[in-house]
Amino acid sequence: MFVPHSPESLGFDSARLARLTPWMQRYVDRGRIPGASVLIARGGELAYFDCAGDREPETQAPWQRDTIVRIYSMTKPVTSVALMMLYEEGLMHLDDPVEAILPEFKDRAVLVPGAKSLADTVPAKAKMTIRHLLTHTSGLSYGLNGGLLGGAYAKESLGLAFAFGGLDKMVKRIAELPLECEPGSRWHYSAATDVVGRVVEVVSGQPLDRVFAERILGPLGMAETGFFVPDNQIGRFAALYTATPEGGMKLAETPAASAQRQGKVDTFQGGSGLIGTIDNYWRFAEMLRGGGALKGTRLISPRTLALMTANHLPGDISSMGPASWAETSFDGVGYGLLGSILLDPARAQTSGSPGDYGWGGAASTFFWVSPKDDMVVILFTQLTPSNALPIRKELRALVHGALVG
User: Fold this and answer.
1) Nearest by Cα to 1 from 241, 341, 297, 253
2) Are strands 383-384 and 240-243 parallel, antiparallel or unpaired?
3) I need a surface site. Which of 55, 142, 158, 376 has the fewest CB within 10 A?
4) Cα(281)–Cα(358) distance, rounded to whole angstroms?
5) Which string of DSSP letters, residue by residue, matches 335-386?
6) Is 90 exceeded by the pLDDT of residue 160?
7) Can you give the pTM of this predicted structure?
8) Which pLDDT belongs to residue 105?
């Protein structure tokens, strides 16, 4: 699975594919990213892999294939798969009200337009459902979104803190806050997938880390993916950087001081909690490309995966109300139960094929699966925020510019 094949045998132009390495190196040389790696596979065969830069420039520790990174919101597709495995067992349904599983979400209130305080609310007319959570149409928010409600989330690090006393405690606090909008009325990126993680815990009767380990990570052979970095692997963990207004970057978190070190994590967040290696995430992405199975190990059925990767919005994301911060562009892009779906490359102003799906993380990691091109592409780096650089669209242009067959 991990042995590179001739790019030409997989439909790539070798010379064009070779542009990826100097592209990464330019960003490193300009001090825009610490390091990066890109993996491209087609039909389950590796077409390209390379690294550039360092996982911690201050110590000149090189970025390598086994570098461990924070994948943040690339955790969300894993959580969605866990939930849909329970769906296939008949333990819950997409139209189930969230309050039937998590009673704290009963009798929700919604902020009124122009609200001056969190008390300016009216009772919600619609009940929040599991489908609303999966599609980010629940009315919940994120600290990244700004505004009155986003500010309340940010103040308490809701969906952003790895030590919160447990996922149950964090989700109960989320349930105490009002909604940004009526469930089902708008697409609003949020901590909804953290709530999905709590639903998984209650329905399965197990904490989320055990569900992941026993149902997904273990069966797929993802031994180096989890909710914290073991002490004996800290030397492979990348440092985290933040983009500066001047066009550079500054150190945000060293591996030694990371909030995701062993012994520090007590809240297993379905929306942003995982760390891992690029080869491990390739296994997960290959399971998706393979219709829910990897080398004979099936997690979900092809029909369930087709449901997850279909657009569940009435149009593209931009048709669902005012733009909020998110890991995707809105024009020409839909959303399913697992991530974004490319509907119209021209409207999205990006290279790709209709039906491409995937998601990114806050530290600029990114992946997509292309059913039409039978392809998986993964980018790992460690720079926040993820919209600081146009590397995702550039990566799409480079990959599709090399795909000739």
Assistant:
1) 297
2) parallel
3) 158
4) 12
5) E-SSSEEES-HHHHTS---TT-EEEE-TTS-EEEEETTTTEEEEEE--EEST
6) no
7) 0.97
8) 98
Question: Residue 30 burial (CB < 10 Å; 0-12/13-18/19+)?
Answer: exposed
Sign, CA torsion 379/368/41/296: positive
Percent of residues, the chain, with pLDDT higher than 70: 99
Q: How far apart are CA 254 and CA 275, in angstroms?
A: 14
Taking the C-alpha atoms of residue 378 and residue 279, their distance in angstroms, rounded to an integer, is 9
CA geometry: angle at 135 spanning 217 and 205, to 5°? 45
* Residues of the chain by 3-state class (helix, strand, coil), percent to 5: 35, 20, 50
Task: Quote the CA–CA distance of 338 and 193 in Å, as a whole number.
Answer: 10
pLDDT confidence of residue 1: 46
In sequence order, the 6+-apart residues with CB closer than 8 A to the CB of 220 are: 283, 284, 287, 294, 297, 299
State the DSSP string of 116-169. SSTT-EEE-SS--BHHHHHTT-SS---TTS-HHHHHHHHHTTTTT-S-SS-HHH
User: What confidence score (pLDDT) does residue 321 get?
Assistant: 81
Average pLDDT of the residues in 1-23: 88
For 342-379, how does the pLDDT look when each residue is reduced to its tens digit (9 = 90+)? 999 999 999 999 999 999 999 999 999 999 999 999 99
Task: Record the tokens describing residue 116, joined without a space.
Answer: 């001056």
Structure tokens at 20: 């990826």
Question: Could you give all domains of the chain from N- to C-terminal order, each with its CATH number?
Answer: 7-75+209-402 (3.40.710.10), 80-207 (3.40.710.10)
Q: Name residue 125's amino acid.
A: K
Give the three-state DSSP class for 293: strand
Of 146, 155, 186, residue with least CA distance to 173: 155
Sign, Cα dihedral of 255, 259, 265, 270: negative
